Each structure stands twice: as C-alpha cells, then as structure tokens.
Antigen 43 (AG43) (Fluffing protein) (Escherichia coli H386), 800 residues
Amino acid sequence: MLMKRHLNTCYRLVWNHITGAFVVASELARARGKRGGVAVALSLAAVTSLPVLAADIVVHPCETVNGGTLVNHDNQFVSGTADGVTVSTGLELGPDSDENTGGQWIKAGGTGRNTTVTANGRQIVQAGGTASDTVIRDGGGQSLNGLAVNTTLDNRGEQWVHGGGKAAGTIINQDGYQTIKHGGLATGTIVNTGAEGGPESENVSSGQMVGGTAESTTINKNGRQVIWSSGMARDTLIYAGGDQTVHGEAHNTRLEGGNQYVHNGGTATETLINRDGWQVIKEGGTAAHTTINQKGKLQVNAGGKASDVTQNTGGALVTSTAATVTGTNRLGAFSVVAGKADNVVLENGGRLDVLTGHTATNTRVDDGGTLDVRNGGTATTVSMGNGGVLLADSGAAVSGTRSDGKAFSIGGGQADALMLEKGSSFTLNAGDTATDTTVNGGLFTARGGTLAGTTTLNNGAILTLSGKTVNNDTLTIREGDALLQGGSLTGNGSVEKSGSGTLTVSNTTLTQKAVNLNEGTLTLNNSTVTTDVIAQRGTALKLTGSTVLNGAIDPTNVTLTSGATWNIPDNATVQSVVDDLSHAGQIHFTSARTGKFVPTTLQVKNLNGQNGTISLRVRPDMAQNNADRLVIDGGRATGKTILNLVNAGNSGTGLATTGKGIQVVEAINGATTEEGAFVQGNMLQAGAFNYTLNRDSDESWYLRSEERYRAEVPLYASMLTQAMDYDRILAGSRSHQTGVNGENNSVRLSIQGGHLGHDNNGGIARGHAGKQRQLWLRPSGGGPAQNRGCRYVSDDRGVW
C-alpha cells in the first residue's frame, strides 16, 4: 500500500468504475483515463475478488510516498519523492525493451530513494530525475536518462545508462551488469564480476560494458570492464584478478595486479603497471607512454605497437621481433623495430623471441628473463646473467658470455660451452655436435647428433633423446637429480653419477663403455641398458618397470621390481657384487662365450627375496666347476627366491652327484639362509638322473642326483618275492630307465647280486637249467654290450 504524508492531508470518496463502488482516495491523487481525478490504490486487489488490473499511480511534486509494491504492469510516475518502493514489473518483455509497460518512472524533478527492483522489475529514471540507493536484483533493471547514485546490482541486476544519463557510485556484484551507451557516463563504479571465467574469457553477461564514458572505475577480483570501440575509460584502477578489455580508448589506467588487454583498433595511454600488473597489446593494438615498474609486465604481440615505454628496473618486457616497441631501460634507449632488436633488457618474466631471419644485438638476459632464438635467427653480444634463460637449437646463431663470464657460441651445426640454467632449453639437431654442455636445471634435447667433451647434468636437468645420439666422451651428473629419457645413447663413452641425487634413465636404450655410480642413486625405468655398472658402496641401483640390464654390477644396493630383468654375462670384466639385494624380478646368468662353459658368481651380502627368480646354468655332465653360483657373504637370505635351473650341457648325459652335491647357493663368512629362502622352480633332468635342490647344515644349497625310472618299474619290483632264486634285482632292464630310446641301444650289463645257480648244479652261467629261467641285470659302465632280442650271452668273463 502507498501511504502519503502531507501537511494538509485530506481524503475523499471517488467512484471506481472497475468495481462499481466508492473508494477512499487522496485529495491530491489523480487518475489517468476516462474519469479524471480517480486514483486506483495498489492495495485494491487485496480487498476485492476481481482480477488484478494495471494501475497508474502519480506522485506529484512535493509529494512523498513510502513503501508499496508495483506488480502486473502497474506504473508509478514520480515527480515528487518515492521512498522504499518495491518494483516487480516492467521487464516482462525483456531487458531494456521499448515494448515493456509498467514499472517506476522517475520524472524530471522526481526522486526515487531506497527502491528495490526485483525479477521483471524496472525503474526508469528520465532526464532530470534522480534515483538513489537503489538495489536491483534477480533480473530486475534500471534504465537511466537521468541520474542514479549508489546503485547496487546483485544477481543479474542490470543498469542501462543511456545518452545523457549518469550513474555514480554503482556497485556491480556477482552476475550484475552495467551498460554505458553512447553519450552515457558512469563514475566511481565498483566492478566485482565479469571475469569469473578467467582472464579475458568469453563473458558478456556480467561486468561493465562501456560504449560511452566510464570514469574512476575500480575493478576488483573477478571484475571486468569491456570498452567498446565507441567507448572511453579514464582513471581506471584494476586489482589482481580483475581485467579491462580495450576496443576503444583507455587513459590513465593503473594496474595493481590486474590486467589490461588492448585489441585491434584499441588505444591505451599513460598506463602504469605496478607489481603483478600485466598490459597486453595485441595485433593492431596501440599503447603510448606505458610505465613498467618492479614486477610489472608489458607484453606486445606480433603486430602490436608500444611507444615511449619506460621500463624501470625489475619491470618485464615480453615481445618478439615481429612487434614494434621503443623506449628506455636501465641500459638507455632500446628498440624493437622491423625485425631488429637492440639493447633489450630481459628480467622478471621478460622475454624476447628472435624469429627466423631476424636479429638481436646487445641483449641482457638477467634472472627470470628469457631469450628465444629460433632456427635461422641471430643473436649476438648476448650477456647471460644468473637465472637467465636461453632457448635455442643448433640451427640458430647465438654468441655471447655465460653468467660465469665464459664465452659460448652456437652456429654452423656446432654448439660450444653452453650453460643452460633452469628453464633454458637447447635442441641438438641430427648431424650436429654439442661440446662441453652444462645443464643446470634446464632441458637438453638431442635429436640425434653427437655429445662431445663433458656433458654435465645438474639440479633437475633433463636430457631428452630422440633417435640415436652418440656419446664417445663423458656424460656426468654432479649435483641434484637428473633425467635421461627416450631415444638411444650409444658410443664408447661413459656415464658418471656423482652427488647425493638420483639419475633416472627412463624409456631409453643405453649402450656405453661403463656406468660409474660413485654417489647417490641410479634408477633404470623401462630401459634397456648394456654396460657394466661400477659402483661405490653406499649407493643404490633400482631396476623398475620393464628394464633389462645386460652387465655386471659391482658393488651397490640393488632393487629389482616385478618385471625388471638383470642378465649377468659370463664374459663381464668384473664380478657382480651386491650389498643388499631386494629381488622381485628376474636374474639370468647368461652365456656370451662360445665353446666353453665358464661358471659365473653373484655375490650378495643380504638377499630379500620377493618371489623373484634367479636362473642358474648347470652342467650335470661335469664333475667340477659345473654350475653358476649365488654367494651369500656374511649376511642373510630371507623371503622367497625361485631358482630356475638351466642345463648348459648334454641333457642326455648326467653324473651321479657325490658328497653334498652341486653347490648353487654358497653361504660364507657366517652367512645364514632361512628355510624356504630358495625353492626349485623347474625340474632338471640329465641322463638317468633328476637333480633336486636341498639345504644343507652349512646353510648352503645343493643339487643332488636321484635315479629316475619308468612307471612300470614298481610292478617289477613287487614280483621279486615270487622268484625262486635268491638272486636280488635292484632295477629292471636298461630299457626300463628313461634315458634309453629304442631296444637296440648298446649297453654294458653286470650281475647286481644273488647267485647264478642252485645246489648241485652249475647254475645258469654253466648252462644248467634250474628253477630260475630269467636273470635280471643292472646297467653298468665300462664298455658296450650288445642286446640281442633280450637274450644274453655268458662266458667265463661274465654275462653279456
């Protein structure tokens, strides 16, 4: 309900032609329509049962109306003062549409105070009218041809400043939207929305849009101001997380951590870039008189132009030789014009890209600065400071001094004495050579080519190989961690690992004369490495993934994860000695020599078996030096390790073991082995024998022979008790032993026991037939005999 306050308040009854009844109306109220002097109170709908129809309320000059709600296309025309009105109608046909009806109209001389405009609500401030302290929310809108002071836009609240209109002190909160049209003016606006999607993200549904003039705007975190080609902004302050997009004009902008983007056709003058501020001049954009202070950054893209730049110490310039930039820095005047850069200072995020066919002279690259010289580009008289970054490949031409004062050069397919600090990158092309390269946290990529002299990797350095790269000298790691990845490294050179860090070799084929592990850790991951690893005690070697190491190890702590393989060749230059071995992978003793079996030894102090396997070569046909051997020296063998036995000799010939058997695990110097520390992984057969693994009281493990028989032998043995002779049979014919193939094999037989006759006769040997009709014989060495259809010949020398 609208309540009126006036010194001479009086009321009268008026006829309401809609309800057909008299209602109480103010003496000062006026109606629009056929019957003059009739006002329809907005509360009428509340006391009648008829449908609500649009009503027009007029607040005359000198009148003050408090409270009330406008709905259903109601109009309130304010020439006096309306305070605290809620407007919920007038935008049913869309934002700022001329087809809309209803809402609150602040006419010339009228004032609207503390108005709340909600969903579908509209407040129209006409020329000469004033609205103050308005809250617009939930899709409501305010249209200005007059003046609006201290408007707050919440949750899709909108404000349209038309030509001649002015908005002062507007606050734009999340999803709020202010549009300043041509001829409109907004001053002191605070923008808190529009950039939630990130810097210069596509977003035109919130923030401040300037087609007219915006002055003294403050853009906070997530705030955005977009200046259209017809628009102009002056004295804008932009904090971190806020940004300004310029298609028109921006003057005297101050960046306190915020961003300014100047697009094609846009102009920015007198921009001040303080700490973490960032001005970007895009292709076709123009900036003049920009000042870059400590930790501020000016970026001029290809085709952009920035003139009369003042770059103070610590300020960053980011550009390329395809841009145009002039100004002064701590070295004096500098320029980037027509593909030539001179006297440029790069620091604190600054960067200069020297493009193909372009040049740069007298470039200073200090901490945080980057010089990128593309293939075919030229940079001379380069001065690299501590922390400066160089990006180049062997197709560029670069010369200058390193941070330590030494000269370096790149040119003609040859790179000499490069020092790549953290963030730096150099690419060696196929057929080119890099000599004495030092990588201190940078990236060295070799697409083939040759490493010459000493190549040093330190402090997080990465050497990436693509194709086949040759190293005939020394690749060394001295400090911190380093990564060697991809491709193939071949040659007669060596890899030297010093320092407490870790060198990781990943997805690489590495073939070198030697790998020397002097300190720290060497991790081989998914790589094939063919070389001996010569280590110092206290170091660590890890084989992970599907790594295959072909070579000896002496001595270090070794870890093999599941899937990793270590092949120990019998021609290694050193014996493999390991301190602690954690084993879940595969270890193979392999034969590299031809024509001669040479057993190999792996010596371990402590073995922690994790179901890993060790494949040992065994010669059951030899009496001595007949097996590879695992030696536990002074420590313990725990867990479970599977021993796979490989017959390296003639599988048809095997000797019976003597003594403790064939030693395959030797415990020395007080070493102990747990029961179950080793299990036999496969059956080993040779000739007439099986060989099985046994643990002895001396903590060592041996293979011992056992005779092996065909399945029918137990049946024959059960018939012995039925024999009438006293002869004893220990085994069936030679054909009953599985080592014989066919019936015509030559075999020497001898009588095993019993006697060949009975009392009062000469026995079988003399041709007398007793009750025994068959003689069972056992194979015997010493010479051949002929089996003639299972009939045996006897004479005074024996039975054949």
